[in-house]
Amino acid sequence: MSRAFVKDLDGAAGEDLPELALSPHRNLVTPSGLEQIEGTLHRLEGELAAARAADDKALVARVERDLRYFRQRRATAEVVPPASAQDRVRFGCRVRLETGAGEHTEFKIVGEDESDPSRGMISYVSPLAESLMGGSVGDRLPFRGAEAEIVGIE
After folding, report:
1. Same domain (yes/no): 102, 65
2. What whole-number distance in Å separates Cα of residue 150 and Cα of residue 134?
3. Which of 80, 103, 104, 129: CA 20 to 30 A from 137?
4. Are residues 98 and 130 in the same domain?
5. What is the gyration radius of the CA atoms in the chain, in angstroms?
């Protein structure tokens, strides 16, 4: 049988695993965002030890790649303390919006690695966060094809 059709299990697994892309933006994080990065590093270090013990070369390669990414993110993290004044939307603020239809929603503006839109955590470089930044209660902005008003900032 031709070797062209046989998966080579003898080579170093994960050699072609691409690096995780680092953002070109500043690595702003909330205090809890930094804790999240450190927790991920701790978890990955445990996974690496287990993968090495199991001699799982593919898993070792993936975890080492993820560790490189999160070590870089920790090294470049700029912790932004909570804003003392709540008069303007800033990094780390929770913003409440109300649409013309009376729908209420809120978002917290966070760093890229802690962003989770399903939980209302949006990256400060997202278009929505950029449109909110610097705003104050009463300001109106485009939102989901309509318009919304900022009704609260925490």
Report:
1. no
2. 11
3. 80
4. yes
5. 21
Length of the chain: 154
Distance, in Å, from the CA atom of 109 to the CA atom of 74, rounded to the nearest integer, reads 19
Q: 78 forms bridges with which residues in the sheet?
A: 28
Q: Is 29 helix (H, G, I), strand (E, B) or coil?
A: strand
- Give the CA distances from residue 21 to residues 18, 49, 69, 127, in Å, rounded to whole numbers and listed in that order: 9, 24, 8, 20
pLDDT at 3 over 60: no
Q: Tell me if 54 is assigned to some domain.
A: yes
4 falls within a domain: no
Kindly tell me the burial class for residue 134, based on how many C-beta atoms sit within 10 Å of its own C-beta (0-12, 13-18, 19 or more). exposed
**Burial readout 71-100 (b: 16 or more C-beta within 10 A, e: otherwise):** eebbeebeebeeeeeeebbbbbbbbbbbee
Q: Average pLDDT in the 28-48 region?
A: 97
* Domain span at 56: 26-80
The amino acid at residue 33 is G
11 within domain boundaries: no
DSSP of 56-87, one letter per residue? -HHHHHHHHHHHHHHHHHHHH-EE-PPPS--S
Calculate mean pLDDT across residues 17-28.
95
